[in-house]
Sequence to fold (323 residues):
Amino acid sequence: MALTNTQYDSIMRGYEKAQSRNTYLLDRRFKEIITRIPEYLQIDNSISSLSISRGKRMLEGDFDAIVSLKEEIASLSAKKKQLLTKAGYPADYLDPIYDCPECKDTGFVNGEKCSCFKQAMINLLYEQSNIKEMLKEENFSKLSTDYYIGEDLERFTQAAKNSKKFVEDFKIDYHNLFFYGTVGTGKSFLSSCIAKELMDKGYSVIYFSSAKLFDTLSKITFEYKSKGELSRIYDDLYNCDLLIIDDLGTELTNSFVTSSLFSCLNERHLRKNPTIISSNLSLEELSNRYSERIFSRITSYFDLYKLTGQDIRMHKKRIANRK
Ligand SMILES: [Zn+2]
Fold:
């Protein structure tokens, strides 16, 4: 994945913003604590003056004093945590705050790009920065089986259970998932849940609606002359930790789509990089619409989950209208 200077700067500005937002937040917390627990500030001041005298002693070469000062500082720090918990705050309430503890909001760990940097690149390059917002609404904590009964419920429960397992065993046990069935039965929801969990764990996830994916690919292939751009995007599609193609079948299917889809499935399978596809098509429609070899790849490489039931989105709308 290659970035232009402007794109690089915009990612780095994101980190600066996170740093200043978190510094401000921590500062506000500190003020709140010293107002509520005045003793906290006293201890904090003692630690500062002890640290200064420790520095002085170090310069003078007095190593015994350094050891005892170090112990004293440690016990005062523990006392600060006790004060916090006694007042009902978490012990780490005044620890530094980071959006990404891994790189401490710098974007780099040991000179290498942090996983959050890689995801920021993907978001930028594929204009999916709204994915995080979307995923706030769609994640396993919002999972509900209220809308299903009987066989529909069994199917959904099984698919949800295996979606969680997919996340747990990610990178250990290679699987691809294919969710298909009628409209509004939770297929995209499960894909989103998985995307959210894996992104939180630092994996790179590319999420495309089928229409957008093939539209993007065909634009670059036919309208641009940039070979570099095209190889970059294929490189990302083949190598990202998880590729999600949502709503397969809603694109304008043609020979270009068929061959791009086939390469995607094949190349990712060779690399053992998992893919999730959701589709409103039945297996029969899938086989009629795509080439034999795509159909056989999907049915042999993917775990197939059929979801059925009423259209949850319509159901929710009806309830909302009644209120
Ligand atoms: Zn990071």
